[in-house]
Hints:
Structural class: mainly alpha
Shape: globular
Number of helices: 21
Amino acid sequence: MDTQFLVSLVIILATFALYIGIAVYNQAKATSDFYVAGRGVHPVFNGMAIGADWMSAASFIGMAGTIMLLGYDGLAYIMGWTGGYLLLTFLLAPQLRKYGRYTVPEFIGDRFDSHTARVIAALSTMIISFTYSIGQLSGSGVVIGRLLEVDTKVGTMIGVVLIAIYAALGGMKGITWTQVAQYIILIIAYLIPVIFMSLQITGNPLPWLSYGKIVAEIGELDRQLGVSQYFVPFTNGTKWQMLALTFSLMAGTAGLPHVIVRFYTVSTMKNARWSGAWALLFIGLLYLSAPAYAAFSRFILMTQVAGSKITELPAWTASWINTGKLAMIDANGDGIIQWIEMKISNDIVVMATPEIANLGVFVIGLVAAGAMAAALSTAGGLLIAISSAFAHDIYYRVFNPQATDEKRLKVGRITIVVATLLAGLTALNPPGVITQIVAWAFALASSTFFPILFLGVWWKRANTKGAIAGMLVGLLTALSYILAAKYGGFRIAGITDTGAGVFGATASFIAIIVVSLFTAAPPKHLQDEVTNLHYPEQMVYKDGEVWLDEHVG
């Protein structure tokens, strides 16, 4: 057993033990603990948990690789994923927290006084979260597969078992504190390699300030090799694709059920806003580092691996070739590997960088632990969203309102285990790379939930029939475009499957507005509830007037 393997294994197992220990210590004993962590989480810790929930395998593992391979065009992921938090923090999160429900489907069901709308929202939550979780489990397979030097499929199933245990046991209360620990681990694991690479290549320990010089050098290398220049826009797609993808990721961020539910775990509207502010700070630490990561990794590969004899490749390449995520093919038979003969998966760049830069066994193990933290933290939040959609919004709110807390917790935990197994089986042969699969989830969220949540909070005229029509039209439009673009080569203005949200959201907004205007207005008490959401928490709108809460009986 080599030293690298032993060190990585010890670090991984120690973090696994920490996560399970936290879940056991904070085991959910009531439904409020299981779904909203008792609504007592401090905004700073909630911001960390949101950060961990948000910085998924796609962010930690896939995003820097996507930017490394796509260059300028890959920046749509950073702009979309961060910009969406501004929409969520200022336009939706405080108002949804004031409404005081457990889940997004519960808000929709009660806001429109409709079990049909509630069930459609719950099914949409399950579809979106299931799609997203496939990407996370695929990411855990990449990490464990490299650590154990086995096929990524075996690594995926190991991840499935771990996630099923701690998510089912702790619920939202356990997952919240697990995610705080996971954030600390993943951000340390992400920053240490990029800081050391910056020191190695530029002599400056601040990668955010030093990588611009390297990007310029990469541009010159690109010209010498005759490949598309790293910082030239729209070389991997049209400008409409970039705009569509950015919108889809922004609106999807503001409509993701597993992210929105994190704002339900705090006590007040004010704390919901502060949670969003802290989350942006914590997320920014990673997202501002990803372009530097991408530039340094590409520079090292272009200068130290490309041009090497095939018999003298660095030792680290053999391990990654075994995972099936890296291929070196001497297509012209000259015995030398050219840049264009290297087939690198987006999903291995961050994981392989400590080895590429020769940063030592401890850093390699730390990055593996950070990647697992990213995959597990998001997967846990997604599984809670699936569980609450079925156990709370469908089973309890529709079919069995008399169910006891014990029964509801049991159904919730069973749902988590089943969903994890199904997502894991799908992740064994994922339909795309991690960032692509995740982009589909965002396209679906932007098409189903963003329009109905935005109009549900800010337009009191939106009614039940409009809500049902909007969610169904948006979901079907996005799904149809994804399938047609992915498997049929269909394009509108060069927009691919990852930008499908722009069509789904547009169709959903139109459907909600048109159907609502051509059908009866909602009852007065529902319209008053919407108006009430627009005022601070201590104020209540009643009978056409605004009162301080203590004056309203």
